[in-house]
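Hi L., both proteins are below.
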Amino acid sequence: MYRFQHGELQVLLVHPGGPLWARKDAGAWFVPKGEINPGEDDFAAAKREFGEETGVTPEGTFIELGEITQKSGKKVIAWAFEGECDSTCIKSNSFEMEWPPHSGKKASFPEVDRAAFFNFDTAKEKMIASEFEFFSRLQNILKKPETISPSDSGQSES
């Protein structure tokens, strides 16, 4: 999700939940994403995951941002859409893990513990480095409004 605030492009990023990420900030934020279910197409998965991680239903004209490869080798495909939300009110799904370590006890944590809109420079600092390419691509696409047409609304973000 992106928006323009005071004429400046900003993107919504999320921070991973759980105790392993609690004290990490720079380089930890990412675009909402997740696993593709068997038989599910990439675009449907992106919209579903965005909703699961934020509680916001993605709607509007979607812009395909392509694919990147993270250091781990994981491939990520992303879309963007213009929208607005109160990032302090996100509602994420949760996961369970053993916590504290080696305790034999399970604890539940939100998959995403917070979200915020960031401008280009701050996003570069906050984001997982490989995913910052998506922000650069979005910025370049939005500088060329002729590349976005109303007919694209069926297939382009998250």
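That was the first. Here is the second:
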Amino acid sequence: MKNVLVLILLFYIILLFQTSFFFHFNIKGVIPNFILILFFSLNYKEEKFHISFFSPGLISAIVGGLIFDIFSSSHLLGSSVLIFLALFILIKKLFQIFEKTNYFWVFAVFAFCLFFFKICLFNLHFIPFLIEFAYSGIFLFFLVFFLKPLKIYHNV
């Protein structure tokens, strides 16, 4: 339960950072999707694929989707939760096929996740997508490869 509250707080702080501070550092009107970056890195750092109620990837999909839905007015409540749940399963299945240690596949899977997310929200434009992928890739690289694994769920 404590880990769920930590995740809710973490996603909320990341969303506040994205919408209030980082909005001033846009490139051609595009800012990184920190909710998706955090969700992806939590699923990337999870060692094994298991679907249970206390799976860190599953909880991050529900929490991240709800936080994203609550603070965006462009789509129905619950649609981002369904998108994040589908991404949770896709990430786990793709990392069963591809190696997590190969950096190319990590960024390829992230590009696919960002593409899937944009397609599901009917918000895909080619040039802004490339800018967002490059911009988000910088933060993903820092979060995944330079920081130690997030130790939120190692005891669950």
